[in-house]
Amino acid sequence: MTPACYTVADGVTFLSIKDDRFTTARITVNLYAPLCEETAGTYAMLPFMLRRGSRRFADTTAFHRALDRLYGAVIDGSVSASGETQILTMSMSCIDDRFALQNEEVAASCASLLLETLFDPPLENGVFRSEDLEEERRCTLESIAAQINDKRSYAAIRCKEIMCEGEPYAVSKYGTEERVKAVTAESLTDAWKALLKAAPMRIIYQGSGNGEAVREAFAKRLADRAVQELPPVTLKAAREPAVRNTETMDVNQCQLVMGLRTEIAGEHPLGDAMRLACALLGGTPHSLLFMNVREKHSLCYYCAARYYRQKGVLMIDSGVEEASLQKAEEEILRQLEDLKNDRFTDEDLEHARLSILDSLMGADDSAAQTAAWYGAEGPYEFRTPAEVADGIRKVTRDEVLAAANTVMLDTVYSLIPEKKEGAQ
User: Fold this and answer.
1) Helix (H) or strand (E) holding 374
2) I want to staple 15 with a disulfide (CB 3.0 to 4.6 A). Which of 3, 32, 254, 342 is the partner?
3) DSSP string, 212-240
4) Does 238 fall in a domain?
5) Residue 50 — φ and ψ, nearest 5°?
6) pTM for this model (two decimals)
7) Is 237 a domain residue?
8) At what angle do helices 271-282 and 385-394 cross, to 10 degrees?
9) Is residue 82 part of a domain?
10) pLDDT given at position 419
11) Structural domain that includes position 52
């Protein structure tokens, strides 16, 4: 399904995706802001503040009754990051118009209510209500604190922070605890007004109709804007020698994370080749890292590589025993060299290609997955999963080698067990 794309206002694209596979329709609004330590914590709270209601439906009961009258529509908010961009998302799901009992235009009514929550939230003396702010502050602080619970995820975050210190990419999508605690009703209100006026936006309609009424509703409300363009992504060469950092924590299994840089980012011509090279290295159960570091040499519990296209960064993470840390690192780097030096079979390459193609086939298995795909693509240009799949099919072995040979180690981070008192 190729979306119909419209420009409905300055810096605002509207994607209409006609899809009658589901009984529901979905409207998603993405606002894009530079990922910045000073503002990330404030922005992270906004989608959750806005999903609470509108001035017309200022209390929870009234707002939920309004949703119930729209056949039990559901509103939600989320925050994410892609490259050096923070993405604030508001979405509403509702019954598809073709199932409405009285032929109502449910999607258009949901668009109107969603616009109310965005532009006319319940305020008190011109600012967000203090009780709402305190509840969302608590939830955001809990999300920040919870990042340490999953040690694999935590280690990846720490490696990224060390590797990209001073770069926007190192900033958490939730911001910092200190910044979140400092948010006031006034600063949050100012941030909300600024984003609605200046942030690039992508609005996505999914349903059996063409979304014209939804598009018109947003075009009318977003007519007067002065958009600020997103800054270009920061690209740096890998440091030589690589930076090393070891931290201790009460863990049973060591986490070894290696951060690597490549010049291939964004819409680079070798982007598809890099995606395939990363899958071949460590993205599938048939990858070089899995088959050699884990299966052949038994040096880790898992070993995987991920390519972050918007930033031009690869991360390789593994769970290992402390005694195997050095050997695991050496073997991982050996497999990277094998990839660079064309020491892999055609079968290895095709396994990686098929794995990517299989995952792309499932990119639109749900409306939420489809919306997430196009939201992460950014506010302006986009490629459909089918277009990416077509690009992956065309990647040659030489292109994979060219992409792989741009990859250089920058950072090695190890999370190891802290020494118990009295332990030998």
Assistant:
1) helix 367-376
2) 3
3) HHHHHHHHHHT-S--PPPPPPPP--PPPS
4) no
5) -75, -25
6) 0.95
7) no
8) 80
9) yes
10) 80
11) 4-221
SS3 content of the chain, % helix, strand, coil (to 5): 45, 20, 35
pLDDT in tens, 197-206: 999 999 999 9
Find the Cα–Cα–Cα–Cα dihedral 107, 113, 114, 116, rounded to 10°. Answer: 150
d(CA 35, CA 32): 9
Give 17-68 as a DSSP string. EE--SSSEEEEEEEEEEE--HHHHHHHHHHHHHHTT--STT-SHHHHHHHHH
Total domain count, the chain: 2
Q: Given this model, what pLDDT does residue 422 score? A: 58
**Cα distances (angstroms) measured from residue 62 to each of 46, 57, 134:** 21, 5, 21
- 413 and 279, same structural domain? yes
What are the distances in angstroms from CA 151 to CA 155, 159, 255, 328?
6, 12, 8, 18
3-state SS class at 91: strand
> pLDDT value at position 424?
53
Report in angstroms the alpha-carbon separations of 54 from 28, 119, 124, 191: 17, 8, 12, 17
Q: What is the CATH number of the domain that holds 79?
A: 3.30.830.10
Strand partners for 88: 31, 79
Spans of the chain, pLDDT less than 50: none
Model confidence pLDDT, tens digit, residues 110-161: 999 999 999 999 999 999 999 999 999 999 999 999 999 999 999 999 999 9
Strand order in the sheet with 74-82: 4-9, 12-18, 201-207, 24-34, 85-95, 74-82
Q: Are residues 275 and 197 in the same domain?
A: no
Largest CA distance in the chain: 76
